[in-house]
Amino acid sequence: MAKLNILEFPDPRLRTKAAPVEAVDDGLRQLIDDMFETMYAAPGIGLAATQVDVHKRLLVTDVSHDQTEPFVLINPVIVEKDGVTMTDEGCLSVPGYYEPVERAEHIRVRFLDRDGKETEMEAEGLLAVCIQHEMDHLEGKLFVDYLSESKRMRIRKKLEKERRHAAAAAM
Ligand code: NI
Q: 118: CA distance to ligand 1 center in Å?
């Protein structure tokens, strides 16, 4: 297994629209294992392939506190959604920022599992929010896109400044 590098806002590669996964094979399962390792190490509760610069439609999540609810969703499609919930969201690609975002409270999602088998699952609460957030990444969309332009610019400038300081400190 290997930990992967996570792209950070405003990296333009995060704006790439991911292509459908054509084959669920050992190469893809290796990527899935690496994505879980990367997500757990961060630590985070969700990671989309887009964030590790692989532009295929897959994401991993685990909203438990003890790594007991891992899910991988390949080529996910939301087939039903209802209700509205507002949650403070963060993102491994926008480190350190949390802002309220409105999402469907309950979803039904269809996807392929790690064996390539078509599956459907219902999700609500944090898991539903997380899946919707990660599916946005596959479209090149970030949670900061739901915020006002001025708030998004403020976050962008602060992150760029922090990165400059980190680079200077590393010299
Ligand atoms: Ni994210």
A: 25
Active site residues: 134
CA of 30 to the centre of ligand 1 (A): 21
Q: Where are the alpha helices (DSSP H) in the chain?
A: 26-41, 125-138, 149-170
* CB 87 within 8 Å of CB 101: yes
Report the pLDDT averaged over residues 54-76: 97
- pTM, two decimals, is 0.96
Separation between Cα atoms, residue 162 and residue 171, nearest integer Å: 15
Q: What residues contact 142, with CB distance under 8 A and at least 6 apart?
A: 9, 14, 91, 93, 94, 136
Q: Give the separation between CA 39 and CA 121, rounded to whole angstroms.
A: 21
Work out the widest C-alpha separation in the chain, in whole angstroms. Answer: 51
- The pLDDT mean for the chain works out to 96
Distance 116 CA to ligand 1 centre (A): 24
Q: How far is the CA of 92 from the centre of ligand 1 (A)?
A: 6
